[in-house]
Amino acid sequence: MSTFSDPRVALVDATLKSVELRLNSGTAGNLSLRHGEGMLITPTGIPPHALDPEQIVEMDFAGNWQGRWKPSSEWAIHARLYQTTSAGAVVHAHPDNCVALAALRRPMPPFHYMIASFGGDIVPCAPYACFGTPALAETVIAVMGTTYSACLMASHGIVTTGADLTTALMRAEKLEMLARQYLLACAGGEPVLLTPEELVEVHGRYGSYGQQ
Ligand SMILES: C[C@H](O)[C@@H](O)[C@@H](O)C(=O)COP(=O)(O)O
């Protein structure tokens, strides 16, 4: 990840990283950073390899922006997450295994203890709504609330949040790893899920895990 202090450069760098991690390809996906009273977000329809820091769009949470470059069609998802949570960065992506699960339109269950690291006992799946609509943004914030740092989006992709871009991107990478592992387990039978008691213990352990 970039060590540049310019947030526009950091967003370009993270967008390229999302391709390297196979979270996105083509023009799929968009990333943003909270910025002042609004946000900085990737422009719509520009593939990562063609993205320049000057194309990053500064906008408010009502959808107003100025300049040559139009913001991501999913700006409302990002704006609503900044309005309803303390997130500092948002990643939207279309990674293969998560999209396969999102096509089933079911939450990812606690087949592995790391599911709890996203805030709850599952990773929820937002109901389907058309891309680029306020309705889609509302389905995402409704399922994530202030509990979850990630969700699947029915027949679409995923959203992750974090205090910063590195964290939001790392969560997207982790969610894709878990989706791959869940599909592998399902291919071999019916995965055994953690019990509510086991999940309480896991949440307790996560409370003191890592560099606090
Ligand atoms: C049509 C888009 O691919 C849509 O699916 C969106 O969710 C996306 O991932 C990229 O849209 P932008 O290029 O508008 O950020």
Order of helices and strands: HEEEHEHEHEEHH
Predict the CATH topology: L-fuculose-1-phosphate Aldolase
Q: Approximately what portion of the residues adopt beta-strand conformation?
A: 5-15%
- What's the architecture, going by CATH? 3-Layer(aba) Sandwich
Enumerate the spans where pLDDT stays under 50 for 5 or more consecutive residues.
none
| Oligomer status | single chain
**How many domains is the backbone divided into?**
1
Question: What ligands can be seen in this structure?
Answer: ligand LSKVBQAA
Strand order of the largest sheet: 3-2-1-4-7-6-5
CATH homologous superfamily classification: Class II aldolase/adducin N-terminal domain
Alpha carbon gyration radius: 17 Å
Distance between the termini: 21 Å
Mean pLDDT: 96
Overall number of strands: 7
* Largest sheet, strands/sense/barrel: 7 strands, mixed
Q: Give me the number of helical elements.
A: 6
The backbone outline, from C-alpha atoms, is globular
